[in-house]
């Protein structure tokens, strides 16, 4: 039986709200190292977006170098990675020929898509084919074929890999792409405009397992063995409900199986909701008060420096939302001046649509006083 870990979208060096996540990333990379040792896997597969930028900062490069050196030296487990849309394929694969001798295989050249990395296990060999991120132009130029869409380009590469696999040897395809219909998150960089980046899954089905990267939510699409492992961490508040982890894959005589292994973050990314007073009180006893926080305040009245108050108990509060001031889609907030409606009625409608409530008797009295004073002042200027 062959076993390997499937992970992707590390985005090493990423900043979130101008805060470096490098320490958070190193924290969970240690857990991947531990999982690999505990489960005695035959390989570690990383399906793209190793770095967050095509020209990563020096500390991100140092972090990856240290992880790979320790992983391969201590565990003697090969690492197989492809480049993603955030990576520079050429920069990432610098020295790839030399590093492959040390067990680090960087697949960043689409021209070598039919050349697998073959790993020997206790039960025999397993082949890993890699499709790094690409666009149709790159595929046309590399293979002199007429492909116009992302789907056609990706299908062409997948078919080349499928044709190159050895008979009776398990084969894994690694790809960084957007399978049509899969769930996306706010933190993913769009590959193209208008959904043109979507690719179909049909050409992938013949592989024993397909290790995907690019989308940050753990999921499968098309067939259960065509899977996204999800990102290393939560990289936006839109991901706050996602369970991050790595996928442990086993391929044997009975077929392919997989298991989600959770990654426990140093600081979670959470959304909390309530009045300012409730959240401040909650924060005083919250054992995870250092988490990255988006606070949704339900207060109806004006608040004095709510962010400063929240950061007294939740120091990593990064975003603030006022739910009572949010406007539902399609609400009409523009007064129809031509209708000659009185100022107080226009304001009352505005208040009701924004606040979801009507003016109290005291508020209505105050409104009329303000309107009368304003009108008197305007008449005095005429």
From TrEMBL:
Residue ranges constituting the Calcineurin-like phosphoesterase domain according to the UniProt record: 3-218
Pfam families documented for this protein: Metallophos, SbcD_C
Q: Which InterPro entries match?
A: Calcineurin-like_PHP, DNA_Repair-Maintenance_Comp, Metallo-depent_PP-like, Mre11_N, SbcD, SbcD_C
Q: Which GO terms describe its molecular function?
A: 3'-5' exonuclease activity; endonuclease activity
Domain called Nuclease SbcCD subunit D C-terminal: residue spans: 265-354
Q: Which GO terms describe its biological process?
A: DNA recombination; DNA replication
Q: Which UniProt key words apply to this protein?
A: DNA recombination, DNA replication, Endonuclease, Exonuclease, Hydrolase, Nuclease
Q: What does the record give as the function of this protein?
A: SbcCD cleaves DNA hairpin structures. These structures can inhibit DNA replication and are intermediates in certain DNA recombination reactions. The complex acts as a 3'->5' double strand exonuclease that can open hairpins. It also has a 5' single-strand endonuclease activity.
Which family does the record assign?
A: Belongs to the SbcD family.
Q: Describe its partners and assembly state.
A: Heterodimer of SbcC and SbcD.
Matches recorded under NCBIfam families: sbcd (TIGR00619)
Question: Can you name this protein?
Answer: Nuclease SbcCD subunit D
Q: Which organism is it from?
A: Marinobacterium lutimaris
Lineage start: Bacteria, Pseudomonadati, Pseudomonadota, Gammaproteobacteria, Oceanospirillales
- The UniProt gene name for this protein comes to sbcD
């Amino acid at each position: 039986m062959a076993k390997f870990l499937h992970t992707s979208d590390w985005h090493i060096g990423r900043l979130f709200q101008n805060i470096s996540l490098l320490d958070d990333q190193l924290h969970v990379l240690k857990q991947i190292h531990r999982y690999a040792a505990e489960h005695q896997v035959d390989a570690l597969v990383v399906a793209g977006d190793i770095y967050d930028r095509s020209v990563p900062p020096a500390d991100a490069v140092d972090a990856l170098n240290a992880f790979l050196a320790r992983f391969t030296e201590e565990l003697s487990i090969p690492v197989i990675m492809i480049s993603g849309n955030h990576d520079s394929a050429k920069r990432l694969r610098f020295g790839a020929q030399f590093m492959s001798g040390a067990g680090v295989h960087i697949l960043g050249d689409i021209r070598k898509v039919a050349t697998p990395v073959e790993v020997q296990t206790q039960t025999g060999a397993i082949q890993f084919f890699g499709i790094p991120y690409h666009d149709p132009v790159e595929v046309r130029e590399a293979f002199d074929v007429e492909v116009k869409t992302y789907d056609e380009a990706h299908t062409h590469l997948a078919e080349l890999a499928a044709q190159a696999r050895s008979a009776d040897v398990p084969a894994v395809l690694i790809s960084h792409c957007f399978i049509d219909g899969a769930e996306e998150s706010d933190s993913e960089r769009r590959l193209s405009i208008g959904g043109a980046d979507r690719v179909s899954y049909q050409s992938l089905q013949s592989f024993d397992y397909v290790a995907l990267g690019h989308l940050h939510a753990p999921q499968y699409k098309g067939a259960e063995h065509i899977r996204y492992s999800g990102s290393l961490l939560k990289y936006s508040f839109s991901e706050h409900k996602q369970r991050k982890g790595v996928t442990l894959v086993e391929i044997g005589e009975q077929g392919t199986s997989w298991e989600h292994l959770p990654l426990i973050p140093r600081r979670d990314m959470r959304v909390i909701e309530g009045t300012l007073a409730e959240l401040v009180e909650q924060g005083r006893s919250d054992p995870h008060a250092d988490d990255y926080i988006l606070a949704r305040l339900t207060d109806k009245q004006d608040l004095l420096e709510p962010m400063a108050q929240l950061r007294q108990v939740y120091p990593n509060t990064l975003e603030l939302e006022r739910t009572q001031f949010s406007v539902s889609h399609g609400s009409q907030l523009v007064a129809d001046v031509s209708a000659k409606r009185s100022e107080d009625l226009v304001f009352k409608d505005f208040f009701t649509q924004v606040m979801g409530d009507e003016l109290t008797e005291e508020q209505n009295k105050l409104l009329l006083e303000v309107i009368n004073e304003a009108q008197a002042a305007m008449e005095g200027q005429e």
